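Exercise: predict the fold of this chain.
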Amino acid sequence: MASLSSPWVEWAGEYTKAAQAEALPPNEWAARVATAAAAAGERGDVQFSAGLAEMLARVVLSGESSGAAPAAAWKYAEAALAARLASPALLLTLLSSRVIPQRVARPTAYRLYLELLRRHGFKLCFQMKAANSNKIRQLIDDNLNLSQIFGFSACEPGVFIVEFVLCILWQLVDTALDDESLLELTPEKKAQWPTRPQDISAFEVSFSEQKPEKIEKLQRMNSVITIELIGHLLHNKVITRILSLARENMQTQWGLFTYRLRLLVANSSTLQASTMSLVAFQQLILDDHNVHGENKHSLHKKFHPMVASNPLSSPNGHCLGGSYSALWTPIDMYLEDCLDGSIAATNSIEILSGLVKALQAVNRSSWHDAFMALWIASVRLVQRASLHSSSCLIIETTFHILIFDPVKQTGTRTD
């Protein structure tokens, strides 16, 4: 794990060790770290810090490998993510490469990883707006090889979101298959990302932490939780929209993924014994069949609204179709968060306006493209559910800002 430490992150590492020894409450730890970061003047890497994410991953994993009780380190990691001090996507990426392969030996760590993933893994909208988002995406790509595996550069925010979400879901599906020895039924006979330790010595000493019967019980519980998390994600409207983009634009990789999903539905005793509805699993598989069995005109009608709503076309011709919609995915995700109340209304107008302008700059799009992206995202939101008055105000004010900003800059609109 390469070091990204700045002086304040190095201080935070030492402070975290002392805080663990003193059993300092997580909220006090987070407040002290945030204060120290601000005092250091590291404004570009305080919110969603890459260095802090790396440090926390190192502390958590060192506690696991040494056999020490790592509960405090996990609590500090949760506090850092909740306070937006560390990058959730990067921290979970760094943890996944070690925690998932060693989940059999250390089921408690895997259980805690799943909880962090459930709470913070898919809140990507704000991270894409952070000052260090380019660095975060590059580090995650370096660790997960997203660009190499999926064939699209993860440097674009929208493309990154699609690849990252599919990667995390794929990891969970492979883990569930591996738990029931079903990976042997895949053509590759192995996981896309490691689900078992490369070195057998990684298992040594691990089982002395708890009694074997308790470990087996935790392993069974983890298998159930993994399946439940997959089902939860497949029922999430934002996730399904993102997956529809992967289905249209990454057909080879999508086929490999849905083959594994079909294996899970057909052969998993854990899934069959659960009370979970299989509708979301079966719908995804059915949609995959439609992608390969129908002509493009009819398949667009069956796509999820994010793709089916006549995606934007760029005047410069550089981005078309579903891949162009992917560039504006963060807008949909932010509006969804506004609708379900998972984010505070404070400064929502400024955040949404800044997000739209940032995406316009990153995607090298015209004012008209940005306006239409927000318009279509708003229409999709209205189609899914009735808008609260606060959400209407946010969208209306953002449109107002978009309309008049070009006038301030140039005196007239050209689009």
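Check your answer against the key: The radius of gyration is 22 Å.
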